[in-house]
Amino acid sequence: MTVATTNHQVVEVKAGQAIFEEGALGTEMYIIHSGQVEIVKRIGDEDRQLALLEKGDFFGEMAILEELPRAAGARALTDARLVEINGSTFGQMLRDNPEIAVRMMRKLSRRLRQTDELLQRALGTTDTEASGGFPLGDLRERPMGAERLLHVKSGMELHLSASSETTIGRRDPVTGIYPDVDLTPLDHQRSISRRHAKIYRRGGKFFLSEDIGTMNGTFVNGQRLETGVPMEIHDGDQVRVGLVELELHLS
């Protein structure tokens, strides 16, 4: 069922219903308004789930960007409402939703890095310097340091990365990127962007910077950060990311 809205179409799908099939031609992408959608690819005689998407996630954008057949299929895991975006409204959607544009670029960047890694492996070479001293791949593999953010209400400790940068946000099944500090379990109101902020380690000092396209703000001791402008942070500082309140411990 398709319902007209002011700028886009809202598509309602039932659990188990295919949204599009692998190999099909398409001219639309979708943003999930409610429900869950799985991205599946046919491998042998069975469909393999590549990603489980939920409210706020998007999919199918490559059909608009590349005008090629779908590389995977999509189907509703639960009853879902989807905002359908076609080529004529794509530009307006990016202007209205800068975070989607940023996530789309990160998704493409990750694909490029993965392709580069495959080429290096095929040539028998490696390159860890470009990835900050760590092999390219899932950010969850990076070792954690002793410094941490404490969620006082739950007692949960979230350790900073042992590298010079720590990403803070929510896990993003669209891009396949997982932040070093994953606040998904604490962000019940979805107030945090997928890549919300970064903590930089420079010598013995630490700095917090908010990422471009972030929603709902980042605060240190009640003071809101200006996007892209690092602020020095200290042991005991109160850090609020979206609606999640944390306490910084550097010792």
How would you summarize this macromolecular structure in one to three sentences?
This protein has helices at 62-66, 87-96, 98-122; strands at 2-4, 9-13, 18-20, 28-34, 37-43, 46-53, 58-59, 73-76, 80-86, 144-151, 156-161, 165-169, 181-182, 195-202, 205-210, 218-220, 223-224, 231-233, 238-241, 244-249.
Element layout with pairings:
Elements: E1 2-4, E2 9-13, E3 18-20, E4 28-34, E5 37-43, E6 46-53, E7 58-59, H1 62-66, E8 73-76, E9 80-86, H2 87-96, H3 98-122, E10 144-151, E11 156-161, E12 165-169, E13 181-182, E14 195-202, E15 205-210, E16 218-220, E17 223-224, E18 231-233, E19 238-241, E20 244-249
Parallel strand pairs: 12-13
Antiparallel strand pairs: 1-2, 2-9, 3-8, 4-7, 4-9, 5-6, 5-8, 10-11, 10-20, 12-14, 14-15, 15-18, 16-17, 16-19, 19-20
Helix pairs in contact: 2-3
Using DSSP, what is the number of strands?
20
Distance between the termini: 56 Å
Which percent range fits the helix content?
10-25%
What is the chain-wise order of helices and strands? Answer: EEEEEEEHEEHHEEEEEEEEEEE
Major β-sheet profile: 6 strands, antiparallel
Average pLDDT, rounded to a whole number, is: 83
Computed over alpha carbons, the radius of gyration is 20 Å
What does this structure look like?
With 251 residues, the chain is α+β, with helices and mostly antiparallel strands. The protein contains three helices and 20 strands. It has helices spanning 62-66, 87-96, 98-122, and strands at 2-4, 9-13, 18-20, 28-34, 37-43, 46-53, 58-59, 73-76, 80-86, 144-151, 156-161, 165-169, 181-182, 195-202, 205-210, 218-220, 223-224, 231-233, 238-241, 244-249. A six-stranded antiparallel sheet has the order 11-10-20-19-16-17, with no helix packed on it. The protein has a five-stranded antiparallel sheet with strand order 1-2-9-4-7. Strand 16 (218-220) and strand 17 form a beta hairpin. Helix 2 (87-96) packs across helix 3. The longest helix has 25 residues, at 98-122. The radius of gyration is 20 Å and the shape is globular. The protein starts with a strand and ends with a strand. The relative contact order is 0.12. The model is unreliable at 1-6 and 127-141 (pLDDT under 50).
